[in-house]
Amino acid sequence: MDAYREIIVGTDGSPTATCAVLAAIEVARACKSTLSVATAWYRHMPDEPVPSEKVKYPGGNPAAQEARWAGETANDAASIARSAGLADVRSLSPEGNAADALLRLAEERRDVLLVVGTLGLSDRTERLLGNIPHQITHHSIRDVLLVRTDGCEDGYAWSSVALATDGSKTAAEAVRHGLALANALGATATLLTVAKDRAAGEEVLDRVAADLPDGHRLDRRIVEAGTDVAHAIADGAGEFDLLVLGNKGMSGPSRLLGSVANKVTHLVPTDLLLVNTTR
Cα–chain-centroid distance for residue 267? Predict the structure, then answer.
């Protein structure tokens, strides 16, 4: 399968959001994709302000100022992308709260990858308040790339990609998408599984490898562990630049029970491609 046709990244102009933009630039470059940079704005009041508000906001009403700020912020990020050599770049300023706006943009398109930073994802208080990456991982019908936003001064480069699998059909979908991205990035791809012992792990990986397209010979990584699969995957992914995982259980009752994918998003120490396996 081909990699993504369009990369959508959200930004509010902050340093952490700029890190997500830099990551999206590299993915768009590798995949030869359109890059869409989006800054959402929210209409706090009616279009026609009361007289006191006209004095308070001489440049226009609050909604107009929000819209102007969003457009300028998205244009600034798009300029960064063009300066990095990308030609097919769009700047978008949709109305609505950030998570809803990004989800809506992704839903309107096909073969899309949504890129967001991980700020607040491992913080329990932030998650309870519903921060942006948390909302997107649980509601996106498109693939989501979660990028760590600490130490991005040198940009992003992924040379090693772990494709997590348990041998299931949904995991196979994630492996195919992850392999396409790894190939586009020119990265080494490794099949990663968690099993009670090495023999059981080899059996799973043999079955997965047999279903891959001809010519794909991947490295293997088996993590021997008991019942705590999520921690085992997160620990095993630590030696790679990027982990690829299916989103099974990220929504619905499984989410409330604590799916493996949900736990991994809050534990993994590296960048994570969360593949939607319900397509």
Answer: 15
**94: CB partners within 8 A, 6+ apart:** 38, 40, 41, 101, 104, 105
How much helix, strand and coil, in percent to the nearest 5, is found in the chain? 45, 20, 35
- For the chain, counts of helices (H) and of strands (E): 11, 10
Tens-place pLDDT, residues 111-146: 999 999 887 555 443 433 347 888 898 899 999 999
Domains for the chain: give ranges and CATH numbers.
Answer: 6-147 (3.40.50.620), 160-275 (3.40.50.620)
> Could you tell me the CA-to-CA distances from 261 to 19, 106, 137, 243 in Å, in that order?
24, 21, 10, 11
The burial of 267, by beta-carbon neighbours within 10 Å (0-12 exposed, 13-18 middle, 19 or more buried), is given as middle
Q: How far apart are CA 164 and CA 172, in angstroms?
A: 9
The token pair that represents 183 in the structure block? 């190939």
Residues 6 or more apart whose Cβ sits within 8 Å of residue 209: 191, 217, 218
